[in-house]
């Protein structure tokens, strides 16, 4: 597993404070923002990064924003708060991007997701995402990725560790890759070499906490599967090489791993007892 490169970081505290909830467009002075950050209706758009060995850090220091879009490589987003942001609360398009120590509560609109990510060498670390909502017909996941076009691309070397997904209507992680079973993938690239470790997943309505479709070499270790989905992990459509160990299950979950025949190669972990 190749972790995101964080050898050094140029620190940049974005001098921007808004109030929540965002019933009106908050004050947003572009002159007060650093180069590479655009603000619209309280949502930050980051377009400037650093270098692979010296990523540029945007330090929120607890500031409230209405969501964040990262459209750059070599970026660290640290310490922002979002209460009722436009969904997804954070969306990543870039490589060598880390999002850490953020809080995202009750994302609104769209498909209702907390975080979406697209690119290589992604780190999602020590974040809290809560209260996603399926009531409008959304599939409101804590975290989601897919690979359907030139912007929403496959992801390699992804590290998702020590996050809390609390009161999530849909899945903790929904991952679909270029050759997804849904048939809407772009067929380009691969999603592989992921670590999903030490996360707390409270799934309220979905059949599984984590659904993996066409992602290879995924480690799921030391997670807590809370609430009561039918099963904790679904592995399908050539999601080979998965390693599952040391996870804690809510007593109501009778099957930890569901798997299909195409994902059996290289699997290590508890004996699968159900379909994905």
TrEMBL record:
<protein>
    <submittedName>
        <fullName>Parallel beta helix pectate lyase-like protein</fullName>
    </submittedName>
</protein>
<dbReference type="GO" id="GO:0016829">
    <property type="term" value="F:lyase activity"/>
</dbReference>
<keyword id="KW-0732">Signal</keyword>
<dbReference type="InterPro" id="IPR012334">
    <property type="entry name" value="Pectin_lyas_fold"/>
</dbReference>
<dbReference type="InterPro" id="IPR011050">
    <property type="entry name" value="Pectin_lyase_fold/virulence"/>
</dbReference>
<feature type="signal peptide">
    <location>
        <begin position="1"/>
        <end position="19"/>
    </location>
</feature>
<keyword id="KW-0456">Lyase</keyword>
């Amino acid at each position: 597993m190749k972790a995101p490169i964080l050898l050094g970081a140029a620190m940049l505290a974005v001098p921007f404070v808004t109030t929540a909830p965002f019933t009106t467009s908050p004050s947003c002075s572009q002159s007060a923002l650093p180069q590479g950050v655009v603000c619209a209706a309280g949502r930050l758009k980051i377009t400037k990064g650093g270098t692979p060995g010296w990523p540029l850090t945007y330090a929120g220091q607890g500031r409230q924003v209405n969501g964040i879009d990262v459209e750059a490589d070599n970026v660290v987003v640290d310490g922002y708060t979002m209460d009722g942001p436009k969904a997804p609360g954070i969306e990543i398009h870039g490589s060598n991007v880390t999002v850490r120590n953020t809080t995202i509560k009750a994302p609104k609109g769209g498909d209702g997701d907390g975080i979406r990510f697209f690119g290589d060498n992604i780190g999602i670390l020590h974040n809290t995402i809560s209260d996603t909502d399926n009531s409008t017909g959304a599939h409101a996941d804590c975290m989601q990725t897919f690979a359907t076009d030139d912007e929403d691309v496959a992801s390699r070397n992804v590290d998702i560790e020590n996050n809390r997904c609390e009161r999530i209507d849909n899945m903790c992680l929904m991952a679909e890759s270029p050759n997804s079973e849904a048939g809407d993938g772009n067929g380009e690239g691969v999603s592989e070499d992921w670590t999903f470790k030490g996360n707390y997943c409270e799934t309220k309505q979905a059949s599984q906490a984590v659904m993996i479709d066409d992602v290879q070499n995924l480690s799921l270790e030391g997670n807590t599967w809370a609430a009561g989905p039918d099963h904790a992990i679904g592995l399908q459509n050539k999601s080979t090489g998965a390693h599952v160990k040391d996870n804690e299950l809510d007593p109501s979950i009778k099957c930890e791993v569901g798997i299909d025949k195409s994902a059996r190669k290289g699997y290590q972990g508890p004996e699968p007892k159900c379909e994905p």
